[in-house]
Amino acid sequence: MREKTLRLIVAFASTHDAMAFEETCLSRGVPGRLIPLPREISAGCGLAWSAPPGEEAAVREALDAAGIREQALRPCLV
Amino acid sequence: MDKVVDCRGMACPLPVITSKKAIAEFTEDGTMTVLVDNDIAVQNLTRLADHNGFAVHSAKKAEKEYEVVMQVTVGGGEAAPEPQEGWTCLPDARRKDLVVVLSSDRMGSGDEALGKKLMNAFIFALTSQDAVPDKIICYNMGAYLTTENEKAIEDLKSLEAAGATVMTCGTCLDYYGLKEKLQVGIISNMYDIVEAQMQAGTIIRP
Fold first, then answer.
1. Is A1 among the domain residues?
2. What is the CATH number of the domain that holds B78?
3. Which of B142, B144, B136, B150 is nearest to B185 (CA)?
4. Which residues form the domain of B16?
5. Which of B175, B187, B189 lies closest to A15 in CB terms?
């Protein structure tokens, strides 16, 4: 079983936003990956961006560049 | 003639016995709606309808509120053989280790129209099995089965009423713009979908 690590999690309003954000991050070289939204953040469903904890500034810049407003942006053990 | 029989609060085998009496009172073809409060009763009433050759469908209306609708045909009812003693109160037909995964709105690859017909036929056939799957998981285009496909929805409602948990991937509902259209079951997430399949003894994927 994989050990949980602290990650910076971005939750989105829609699946389309999550997928568009992944494209933006890939093109800007922002590290991270799409994962299922952790239960700790929401009991709902959907995709979330998981980034290294130190990348908050780059993540926020990417959100601005993509014109996407996040639903949540916070650290979480995943 | 149409009839509503309220069997809520009755322990097995009373719902079946009461329904049999009500069927005997039909003097012409009609619809009989039986209200019950548990999924085992739904399974036994579905079996009663099958024994009599009546078309039947069921739905879970709310927690502990189920509806079984039979198309009673007078000739069919009288012609049916008397069920053997004991079958009216069979144990839960759910197979706890069985999970059905519907990852598309069509079955197999090839012609789209044929694939959709096959999928509807598969779900219909699922309702006629003795065993009820513990979980039915719908994802990707399978999300259309619980939202827009009327035939599939009716059959999935019957399976839900018989005790199956129907789960649709929320990410997929959102992606296809179907979130407000869910007609049966619950919205699920990837963790539950993985967990259900990890715990399954058998996974059927048409």
1. no
2. 3.30.110.40
3. B136
4. 2-89
5. B175
Residues of B in contact with A37 (CB under 8 A): 189
Q: Smallest CA–CA separation between A73 and chain B, in Å? A: 19
Q: Which amino acid is at A13?
A: A
Please write the tens of the pLDDT for every residue from B51-70. 888 999 999 999 999 999 99
Q: What is the pLDDT of residues A18-56, one digit of tens each?
A: 999 999 999 999 999 898 898 888 866 688 999 999 999
Residue position matching structure tokens 């197999």: B108
The interface predicted TM-score of the complex, written ipTM, equals 0.71
Of the candidates A15, A36, A39, the beta carbon closest to that of B174 is on: A15
B201 vs B44: CA distance, rounded Å? 25
Q: Are B170 and A39 in contact (CB < 8 Å)? A: no
Q: What is the CATH number of the domain that holds A51?
A: 3.30.70.260
Same-domain check for residues B85 and B101: no
SS (H, E, C) B118-138: HHHHHHHHHHCCCCEEEEEEE
